[in-house]
Design goal:
Chain lengths: 259, 259
């Protein structure tokens, strides 16, 4: 699935959450995280004590063009320092822990974050290191936990995919795209009168050729044709095509006319 | 973010959509797709004309334990063959095309798929090859398009992440987890009478030590304390701790008592 826009300016639009990677191991994953963040309109990346040091050129190579996020990444020694200027912190946590804390889904978390950022509060999201996850002390600065609903038989997510889902839900929390629409381009969904016009044409020809000769069944057959042609959202362009098909079928093969 | 369950049986629960990878290039990506599918409870994987042939052991290595999906993957030469037993086909398509077709978000698509599978219809989702995407002929068998709302400045998704979002939305479309809850473990959210009991203890000691000596302000101060202690969902265990704190603060340092 492509659609990359190489040189786009990815500067944050408004107040967006900070993604904090705690003790990330592979710089390649940090790059993949930056890419996933950019998909969802996130920008601010903080790294707490990255295992292999920073910067690492492999991160830029795996970011697929989300270089700006890496260029602006901030490095901290501890979680406490990385969250010190934030008002609220969310911690992703795939497994239950014996701590009393509000637990949100990714979707619920994204909605909470939107509320907070709209109040001009600074928000951060903690992601633990690959495999081991966050440690008990890391959670002490968190206001909320986030756990993604996933198939409990297989909860293994890599770091970039964990960030991808959160970034996606952040974006969706303010997204206005209709869940379903018809992509019509230069054409438009046909009005009832446009459909009536076509159906008149069709019925006239069906009467002429004898398809509707059974007068008792004729009204029901016409109603069923209406039902069929309305089941899809037919466009004016498609109706013109259908008009043409009916006309050409009636006219018969070009060769036949010429004889 | 970890949580992998190695030996789990990932057999499909009920009627689940088929993921169809059209001309995938890297076997490593096919493995990562299987992993993402398993996260969202998907199982059926079909490959149309994989570039490097099939099977490829690197796919199993990158599946992080979702081997069963790869073991059962089916191979086809063409999209037409891969969809021939399906009732409805969704095609992911990041860019607009000049084709008239219903366009869904990932979330809208997942809801449609749930409706269809609940009607015992067989559903498939087409994902195009890395970079190039699906071709015009591939779309002719599709009933719907799916396009993910993402930051338009940066729409680049790798194949596994595209599948991840769709699998996640498929799972979420039937997910019942509350968006927000308090994880309380052995304890429970305090009732008003448990809070009343603590507040009575606190106010008694605050009266005794003189903190509430301003009789005019006293009722308002007590109300504000109520408001504070109710802002969080306090648990019975935390109230016991707070009772203990008040008692110990009143008693003063252990050394002082002993003198």
């Amino acid at each position: 699935m492509t659609g990359r826009d190489g040189g786009a300016d990815l500067a944050p639009v408004g107040n967006t959450p900070v993604v904090i990677l705690v003790r990330p191991q592979l710089a390649e994953n940090v790059g993949a995280v930056a890419r996933a963040m950019a998909n969802g309109g996130l920008f601010h990346l903080r790294l707490v004590s990255p295992r292999d040091g920073w910067p690492q050129s492999i991160a830029w190579r795996s970011a697929s063009g989300a270089d700006q996020l890496l260029d602006h990444a901030e490095i901290f020694d501890t979680v406490d320092e990385a969250v010190s200027d934030l008002h609220h912190v969310f911690a992703t946590c795939p497994r239950p822990r014996h701590i009393i804390k509000p637990l949100l889904t990714a979707r619920g978390g994204a909605l909470e974050m939107r509320c907070m950022t709209n109040r001009s509060l600074k928000v951060g999201i903690l992601f633990g290191p690959e495999r081991t996850g966050l440690e008990n002390h890391d959670f002490t600065r968190a206001d909320y936990w986030i756990r993604y609903p996933l198939d409990p038989r297989f909860m293994s997510l890599n770091l970039a995919q964990a960030v991808m889902i959160m970034a996606y839900e952040w974006w969706m929390a303010s997204e206005q795209t209709p869940q379903k629409q018809l992509q019509t381009h230069a054409t438009h969904v046909a009005t009832k009168s446009e459909l009536e016009n076509f159906m008149g044409h069709l019925v006239k020809e069906l009467d002429y050729c004898g398809f509707l000769r059974n007068q008792q069944k004729r009204p029901g057959m016409i109603r069923n044709l209406w039902h069929f042609f309305q089941r899809a959202e037919v466009t004016d362009q498609e109706l013109r095509t259908l008009h043409g098909i009916v006309s050409e079928l009636v006219r018969g093969p070009v060769g036949k006319q010429e004889t």
